[in-house]
Amino acid sequence: MREIFESELKQVGDDLAEMSRLVESAISRAGTALLTADLQLAQSVIADDHAIDQIERHLDERCVLLLAQQQPVATDLRVVVSALRMSATLERMGDLARHVAQVARGRYPSKAIAPAAEHTFAAMHDAATRVARRTTTLLTTRDLTVAANIERDDDLLDALHQDTFAALLGESWDGTAQETIDITLVGRYYERFGDHGVSIARRVVYLVTGDFAEASAIRSV
Amino acid sequence: MREIFESELKQVGDDLAEMSRLVESAISRAGTALLTADLQLAQSVIADDHAIDQIERHLDERCVLLLAQQQPVATDLRVVVSALRMSATLERMGDLARHVAQVARGRYPSKAIAPAAEHTFAAMHDAATRVARRTTTLLTTRDLTVAANIERDDDLLDALHQDTFAALLGESWDGTAQETIDITLVGRYYERFGDHGVSIARRVVYLVTGDFAEASAIRSV
């Protein structure tokens, strides 16, 4: 029984890591598509999102079967319940990458992001891509210093998000309503992407340390 | 054992209904605060959000204990896992109501929504409030016709969301960047609120019918 459980649990962990790798690829390509008005790249992100959704469904079915057939308790149970939640979060991160790509596609052949905000969105792209890459690393290594770095990138995304509003509300802003809308929405997508990364980081910290307070305080690691 | 399980499961259902009632109150007050620039009402929504978060935590702990101590299978297991997911969704709906209230508070004493879009946001407010009220009804009665009505209100929210963009991109739009930002963000909050209502509706349909295809097709009920 135990061997089957361990093997099933390993598969759950592998699925989460695979989802995270796909999210990493999606957010990275979506940001490049956004910044360079690359229609083909944007379309590839949109088309590939179903693969993330599919792993989520398989992973969830596997977790429910695990609960029914293996009836885990204590730490094992916590791992399975956390996996259910992290898969939902990763699925949502994939959706946000798709939303960024949809904005890029919608404005093609123009760039969606007005020149005045390009620098800020390039930094958001970098930070979000790091969040995704670190999420994959965290899920595969459970190295808690990586969790702290995800929190730091999320702080950076929040600050950059504020910068986008400062740009839109500054006296020199003379963009169109469409440009204002796009900056507002894409900024929000990146900001949420960071939040979701932090949600996963805290769940992993909680799984490793068993301590919710510590999970909320990894910023200070 | 079975009696304890039934009693615990009833408590989980009661907690979900209570969360939904609080969400209903929050989104209703947030919309009124937004449309009438009512600072006190906006602040009450923001202050009350923690109560929703608190029920979510208790509910989740109860579900994990239920899984560990009662080791449910089949339908019982499906009910507990669905409750975990629905509580996360209701918590998020509470956050979105809080975000609407925060925009209202941020623009006080002005109204956040420019006059040209007020009519559309009054309709979004009505539709979102109906979604929340119907979610409470669905969770307490499991009447599937209510689920179909939630889908219809979500369709309406999507259409109204498109109307906001049409207004912002129309020739007659002469609002400030702040007004464009607020309409873009609040429109997005309402649109997501409807999506979450549909997510709960489909979970309940799935629990009642055991059929995912039916759950996705309740629009045609």
From TrEMBL, chains A, B:
It is found in: Cytoplasm. Plays a role in the regulation of phosphate uptake. Belongs to the PhoU family. GO terms for cellular component: cytoplasm. Keywords: Cytoplasm, Phosphate transport, Transport. It comes from the Bacteria. One of its GO terms (biological process) is negative regulation of phosphate metabolic process. Gene3D superfamilies: Phosphate transport system protein phou homolog 2, domain 2. The keyword Ubl conjugation does not apply. The keyword Cytoplasm applies. Homodimer. It comes from Sanguibacter antarcticus. InterPro entries: PhoU (IPR028366), PhoU-like_sf (IPR038078), PhoU_dom (IPR026022). This is Phosphate-specific transport system accessory protein PhoU. Residues 16-103, 123-204 form the PhoU domain. PANTHER family: PHOSPHATE-SPECIFIC TRANSPORT SYSTEM ACCESSORY PROTEIN PHOU.
